[in-house]
């Protein structure tokens, strides 16, 4: 009888283990399929967006050909459209934004992680993160009614007077001080992308092992040497990823730029002159687009922005791959 009871107990134990294994296998299969479905959904959405942009812009490229990308003229009355001015404005404002935001953002992150007094780290960090939560339209309103008049009275006249008569720089900062313009839009973008770069840089700097920095200080290195030779090289891959995230935000920003750039479809060498970007042009004119060619041209602008963003991200991935390869070698 004892052997029969033990056998029954063993059978029940074996059956319970089999049920547990089947349950785990089912849950793993469900989890695997859910994650795979999420990944496939992202690809489907991306392909759907690309397909919609290509089909919607077909008429514009059929009418103007590749000249659409090299023509500055934008005349809805004559149905003559070119994307060169918005492309130029998008690239220039993004470059201005990154020129200011990257060194300032990294500097703030270094200050917070290396030299800031501990009681001030949390308040300053929270203040930086709050900048990221401000809606872009608030930046636009502030830029139009506060920042632009300030630049019109102070910075722009100073730049015009300082660089007057100097080759290249005189044309780069020429013209009357409108307040609004490409430079103003670039500075607004710099303020907007600054918290993203700062937050990511601060987080990745905090991952540097303390023993590395302590060893460097023990060898007699200064804070500058520790930062430039230990902290930044150790985190360069993640740091570039954060910078690319900020650049993607700058390329696609709409409302804040629309308020302060002036929305003029022309290319001028002066950064103080009004201009436009791809996203600002679409936001301003899509509701007014009456003809099929007009609508298709605006969708073609969206396709161009999509391609520019894709190229930027692809270049960033190649850079990261090369850096990882060199680090591994």
Automatic annotation (TrEMBL):
Q: What topology does it adopt in the membrane?
A: Multi-pass membrane protein
Q: Sorted alphabetically, which keywords does the UniProt record give?
A: Cell inner membrane, Cell membrane, Membrane, Phosphate transport, Transmembrane, Transmembrane helix, Transport
Q: Which residues form the ABC transmembrane type-1 domain?
A: 87-316
GO function term, MF aspect, one: phosphate transmembrane transporter activity
**A GO CC annotation given for this chain:** plasma membrane
Instruction: Please verify whether the record's keywords include Lipid biosynthesis.
Output: no
Q: Which organism is it from?
A: Consotaella salsifontis
Function, as annotated, reads: Part of the binding-protein-dependent transport system for phosphate; probably responsible for the translocation of the substrate across the membrane.
Q: Locate the transmembrane regions by residue number.
A: 38-61, 81-112, 124-147, 178-197, 237-261, 298-320
Q: Which family does it belong to?
A: Belongs to the binding-protein-dependent transport system permease family. CysTW subfamily.
Keyword tRNA processing on this protein? no
Q: Which residues form the signal peptide?
A: none
Q: What domain of life is recorded for the organism? A: Bacteria
Give the PANTHER family listed for this entry: PHOSPHATE TRANSPORT SYSTEM PERMEASE PROTEIN PST (PTHR30425), PHOSPHATE TRANSPORT SYSTEM PERMEASE PROTEIN PSTC (PTHR30425:SF1)
The beginning of the lineage is: Bacteria, Pseudomonadati, Pseudomonadota, Alphaproteobacteria, Hyphomicrobiales
InterPro entries recorded: MetI-like, MetI-like_sf, Phosphate_PstC, Phosphate_Transport_Permease
Q: NCBIfam families, per this entry?
A: phosphate_pstC
Biological processes annotated in GO: phosphate ion transport
Name of protein: Phosphate transport system permease protein
List the subcellular locations.
Cell inner membrane; Cell membrane
């Amino acid at each position: 009888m004892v052997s029969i009871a033990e056998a029954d107990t063993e059978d029940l134990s074996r059956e319970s283990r089999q049920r547990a294994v089947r349950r785990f296998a089912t849950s793993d299969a469900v989890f695997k399929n859910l994650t795979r479905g999420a990944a496939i959904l992202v690809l489907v959405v991306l392909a759907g967006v690309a397909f919609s942009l290509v089909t919607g812009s077909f008429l514009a490229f059929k009418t103007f050909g590749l000249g659409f990308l090299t023509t500055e003229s934008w005349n809805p009355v004559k149905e003559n459209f070119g994307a060169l001015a918005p492309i130029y404005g998008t690239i220039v404002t993004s470059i201005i934004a990154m020129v200011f935001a990257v060194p300032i953002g990294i500097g703030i992150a270094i200050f917070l992680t290396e030299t800031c007094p501990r009681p001030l780290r949390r308040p300053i960090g929270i203040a930086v993160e709050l900048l990221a939560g401000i809606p872009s339209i608030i930046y636009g309103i502030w830029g139009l009614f506060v920042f632009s008049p300030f630049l019109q009275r102070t910075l722009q006249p100073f730049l015009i007077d300082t660089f007057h008569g100097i080759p290249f720089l005189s044309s780069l900062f020429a013209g009357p001080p409108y307040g609004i313009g490409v430079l103003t839009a670039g500075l607004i973008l710099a303020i907007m992308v600054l918290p993203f770069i700062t937050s990511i840089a601060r987080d990745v700097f905090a991952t540097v092992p303390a023993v590395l920095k302590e060893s460097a200080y023990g060898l007699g290195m200064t804070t500058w040497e520790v930062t430039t030779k230990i902290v930044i090289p150790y985190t360069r891959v993640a740091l570039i990823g954060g910078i690319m995230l900020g650049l993607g935000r700058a390329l696609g920003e709409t409302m804040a730029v629309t308020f302060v750039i002036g929305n003029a479809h022309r290319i001028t060498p002066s950064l103080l002159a009004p201009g436009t970007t791809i996203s600002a042009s679409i936001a301003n004119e899509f509701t007014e687009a009456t003809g099929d060619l007009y609508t298709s041209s605006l969708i073609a602008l969206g396709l161009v922005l999509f391609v520019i963003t894709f190229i930027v991200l692809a270049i960033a991935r190649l850079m990261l791959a090369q850096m990882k390869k060199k680090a591994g070698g």
